[in-house]
Amino acid sequence: MIDHPTKAQKSKVWLTKQVNSLLLAFGLLLLITGTGTLGYMTIEGWTFTDSLFMTIISISTVGYSVVQPLSPEGIWFTCFLIVVAMSVALYCFSLIGQIALEGELYRFRGMYKMRKRIESFNNHVIVCGYGRLARTTIPDLL
Questions:
Q1: Contacts of 137 (CB under 8 A, 6+ apart)
Q2: Which residues contact residue 66 at a Cβ distance below 8 angstroms, ignoring those fewer than 6 apart?
Q3: SS3 helix, strand, coil % of the chain, rounded to 5?
Q4: Closest CA to 78 of 42, 39, 26
Q5: How is 52-74 classified by DSSP, letter by letter?
Q6: Cβ-contact 78, 70 below 8 angstroms
């Protein structure tokens, strides 16, 4: 006999996959930030602070002016950094949107299944909660 995963197990697997994807995406953003910082330090000979600041304003597309004048190699590096960083950022945003949408669809599908199951009941009463009032009422319903 084949054991089928429960709804809770499926949900846990789905959540684990989504969290792993998000961790990968944000890890890539950190890697790009580190690479950009080291790139400016190497190519332009800037300090860590100037290099990190230039990397962050480049990949965030804030549009501040450059920290210091760029060499031709620095200009090419900045172009490359922006393209790669924006690609990863778009991936992150699409992943967040996908997770939100899939979560809503997953929840909607569950509610739809529950509603269909409830509609299939005949001569049933659904009691929500089992307090003092329900304990005295349920025997009358049976």
A1: 127
A2: 54
A3: 75, 0, 25
A4: 39
A5: HHHHHHHHTT--PPPSSPPPHHH
A6: yes
Confidence of residue 1 (pLDDT cuts 50, 70, 90): low
**pTM confidence score:** 0.63
Q: What is the pLDDT of residues 2-45, one digit of tens each?
A: 667 776 677 677 778 878 888 898 899 999 999 999 999 999 99
Residue closest to 41 by CA, chosen among 83, 74, 65, 69: 74
> Which residues neighbour 11 within 8 Å (Cβ) at sequence distance 6 or greater?
106
When mean pLDDT is compared across 3-7, 49-53, 89-93, 112-116, the lowest value belongs to 3-7
pLDDT at 59 over 60: yes
Domains and CATH numbers, the chain: 7-141 (1.10.287.70)
